Structures
1.
Amino acid sequence: MAGKLRRFLDPYILLMFAVIAVAALLPARGQGATIAGAAADAGIVFLFFLYGVRLSPQAALSGLKQWQLHLAVLFSTFMLFPLLGLGLQWILPAALPSALMAGILFLCALPSTVQSSIAFTSIARGNVPAAICAASASNMLGVFISPVLASWLLHTQGAALSFGVFRDIVLQLLAPFAAGQVMRPWIGQWVQRHRTVLGYADRGSILLIIYVAFSKGMVDNIWSQIDLADLAILSALLALLLALALTLTAMIARRIMRLSVEDEIVLQFCGSKKSLASGLPMATILFSGAQLGMIVLPLMLFHQLQLIVCAVLARRYARRPEPDRDRPASGRADGPLGQQQQA
């Protein structure tokens, strides 16, 4: 039973919610809040420097021969998701407090994950090299695209790219990322060798960002604006958003592009996920004030949800017979979604 629970509950997510509990009981105030905020800003610079070192430009460019697949992933990440988010806002304008709805729109502007997209593609016996290229390209472009796209989606929520916000994006996101790319030939192997220790460091930075964000909300009593009903509605909307993304990417892969099963898996997993590691630092820069915690809450919940659903989906793909790769790609219903439709 414990093993099954570990499959579905990411310990890191549990740790995040533990940090939220600490912020609720012992929020940073006064000088402590100033020090914690400065440390969180330093953590953002550190995170994006590491992203720059880790992401290989060669990996993002080497798969250009499959440019249609990579464009489909980028379309899903930066166009399909924002359209779905705007659709939810238009259909249900008053379903949630404005900060939570802004959080959903912000989530829709983020790039795909790297590690989990590749891992699930591997488990599902998909095209791993293409997944590496697609996920890397999404993250590299997301450093530039996501802040601008989020600002456009949220212009009514006061997240326009003022000079101050643009300056912070350049100094805290783009400059460290570019520095990491420049330094990659010299320190890339060292970072790879020490990835375990550095992994603890970058995850610790994210936990600090969460603590600062939720402390602001506690100090300003922002959490009194939401209740259990809001959390239930938010969870349902996030589940709907993920289901629509998975269903539409499957339709694009099968009906429009007629991809092989292996490439369909890439589009499913790289095109339906959103990066918590990139999103939290970006939110800290784009949004100020007590509502930051509410804005990042949808991202945290969506992150856990996508891990659970994609883990199940990957295992269902993995159970397909080997001869499937030789079947014609058109009109298939052999993937997990197709099996569900036949049931």
2.
Amino acid sequence: MSQLRLRASPPAVPTGLVPRRHLETLLTRSATLPVTLLSAGPGSGKTLSVASWLSGGGFRGGTAWLTVDVTDNDLAAFWADVLGALTVGDVLPTDSALREVLPAAGFGPAQALQVRAGLAELPVPVLLVLDDFQEITDTAVLDS
């Protein structure tokens, strides 16, 4: 779980990072939407901007982070990592049904419904950051 713990933690925000107030305002507004896509060229500061916004209290609720990589192009691996990130982010209550989902045993429509129901039952809003999502190319993962 140590590698997942690294991937499930936002990067440290360096001191002296120039705040992007307009972007932070847009992120705060979009945090109430089901999905927000932050898109810009490589090296433009997307990851650090989101990490800085989160560290500054930009979202009032639970947060979880997952830096996606090519190993997540497998349905079971992707959902195991997402659920692991929610666990590492400490946003799942101890009695959450999401703690019972075991993607490694197989992940299909029934498990997708279980995850959807478990997310809907969370007591506070949760923001899940999927950093480097462009690494996902598998159709089954994208469809899920």
3.
Amino acid sequence: MKPAPFAYHRAASIDEALALLAEHGDEAKLMSGGQSLVPLLNMRLAQPALVVDISRVEELAAVAEHTDGCRYGAAVVHARFEDGLVPDVADGLLRTVAGGIGYRAIRNRGTLGGSLAHADSSAEWPVVMAALGAQVVVASAARGQRTVAAGEFVEGFFTSALDDDEAVVAVEVPRPAPGARWGLAKTARKPGEFAESLAVAIVAADGTAEVWLGAAGSVPLRVDAVRDALPGRTWGEDVAAEVVAAVGATLDDSDPYHRQLHGITVARALERAMRQEAA
């Protein structure tokens, strides 16, 4: 299929892009890598009057590491994480996550900010950034910048906290606390596909776990039921079974297959974190 007719403008700066959003409102769409927007245009699920290309705005590709973490520009492509071309303040988690997104051609073009703005709860970055306690930096021409906690950024199916005149400009990712370990588990039909279940676990030095689950609802879910399942225990079948049961009991899903699937994915993420050497 071909997209409906639209006007195209390549922005030279973020201020220019924000001014166009302010002028055109929901009739305008930003495009960075285009890996989410272009298919929607071709299927006519999105029919904007104006597409604003921000792929060559240098400030959106900037990366600034600091003592407490790193600020990643919204237009940093997945491949830069995968190839180690930007700092990974999450001790290898960001590089691992990026390497499992789609296929190399997608990773060469798809961006961190674009993935977040697309607001798909089965995508990697919304879940990972929530688990890391990241802050999404958004901006508008009228109100300047504000930050939104990554765990609150996705508000529903393909619905984010962005207003019509706002854009994601950066993501602030804090460093994990000393001694923290991470685990990632993704269940999909084949490598590169969107997840049927996706879990990220950050296990603190005291054994408490911050666990987030994707593809289990309209938004990434924080799984508090397993937060205190690990302190003072070693990983084994009894702990795994307890985790699977606890996750299944918290989900608003009547399908026993889905409850089991998500429970096993969370258990795998926790096991991988427990077996990883502490940072």
4.
Amino acid sequence: MRVSSGVPGFDDLVEGGLLDQRLYVVSGPPGSGKTTYCSQFITQGAKEGDNCLYVTMHETKSELSKDMAGYDFGFDRALQSDAVQFLNLVTENGKRTITQFGTDGGLTNRLVAFIEQNDVDRAVIDSTMLLQHFFADMDDEITGFLSALKQTDATILLISEMTDPTSYSDEHYLAHGVVFFHNFLDASGMTRGIQVIKMRGTAIDCDIREISFSDQGLRVFPDRKVQG
């Protein structure tokens, strides 16, 4: 089964949508569109009646809502609805919430238990860089964390700060798919693009496609290829 990303044009690149119950990494430099993409993914889930979860380690619910306030695709309404749960792991409320789901195994077991017990269909985790604050040994624990997430029944997007599409990290190897955002200067000015680097079970070509931002959010132009 495939689920819609909620991003116009993107699903055309991946045979109609993301395969459900899989883990995807969304990478790219700051300001390239990662959070907008993930917000549209959550909003689409809320519209379809999915149980959604947005996990962050650096923004409050209010801050995230304000970040997306310039768009009209409905993320603010989704965030306030019963369809979306928001979990900030560094606030006292967030810590109390996650602690209810066990004291053994640290963040990995607690978050997986939260996802399973709340029957979460879609989740966004922001981000890999901030996970280091929860793991004593990032290199060892990230593998177990990602492997555990892959065993849940949720379709999960993990935001990564990786800025080099040719440099693979543990999360890229372990994920079912990798979506990379490009944001670079060329002779004509700033060029933005999106590239599906990896997508198990899906025919992809790895070419960079043009993207644009409007008050409706992010849009992908599957027929417009750009050079990175």
